[in-house]
Design goal:
By secondary structure, this protein is mainly alpha-helical. The protein is built from nine helices and two strands; from the N terminus they run H-H-H-H-H-H-H-E-H-H-E.
């Protein structure tokens, strides 16, 4: 029988429920999740990390984030776009990352898609935030969504530009993470904060 993980007592701060189960999640929630990101490279890195999460928990990604950053040249799209079949095999043998061939190959392809946008004069940050001109989109209901019409549109726009592992659920999680969508629980101390990274 499934049991809800225990909430770890740490302090009296009200947080989103998902952030109360592990210290690493708590730190990520308190310092990063939902903070508007305007830096194109960082937006791309977060999109790649969300792709690695597919079928896994975000906690696994956080635990492997340093390894993923090391393995993918600190998510420098110019360098990642030059990765070849030997690099894919090297990454598949790296125990410090999430070793999923499709996700590794998608990350390399997504670097190429990112660079193609840049070469066309399309800034990734302007594209991202342009999809939601009234962002951050506020979710005041407290309902936990997995996707939305906006994430469906974002997914379609990313796929049209050659990105992979960017379905509507991944796009929604990414937009939550980078602050396009403010999905903090209404009782969370981070609800409607707007510092920018």
């Amino acid at each position: 029988m499934f049991q809800t993980p225990p909430i770890l007592p740490t302090d009296d701060v009200s947080r989103c429920r998902w952030a109360r189960t592990d210290p690493l999640l708590r730190t990520y929630h308190d310092e990063e999740w939902g903070v508007p990101v305007r830096d194109s490279r960082m937006l791309w890195e977060m999109l790649c990390l969300e792709g690695f999460q597919a079928g896994l928990s975000w906690l696994i990604v956080l635990r492997r984030r340093d390894g993923l950053r090391r393995a993918f040249a600190h998510f420098d799209p110019d360098m990642v776009a030059r990765f070849d079949a030997r690099d894919v095999e090297r990454l598949m043998a790296d125990p410090g990352i999430i070793r999923a061939r499709a996700k590794i190959e998608a990350t390399i392809g997504n670097a190429k898609a990112y660079l193609a946008m840049r070469e066309r004069g399309e800034d990734f940050s302007e594209f991202t935030w342009g999809m939601a001109p009234d962002a951050p989109v506020r979710n005041a209901t407290g309902a936990v969504l997995s996707q939305s019409p906006l994430s469906q549109a974002m997914s379609k726009a990313l796929k049209a530009r050659g990105f992979r592992f960017v379905g509507p659920v991944i796009a929604y999680a990414w937009m939550q993470a980078v602050g396009v969508i403010d999905d903090h629980d209404p009782v969370c101390f981070r609800h409607h904060q707007s510092a920018v990274r």
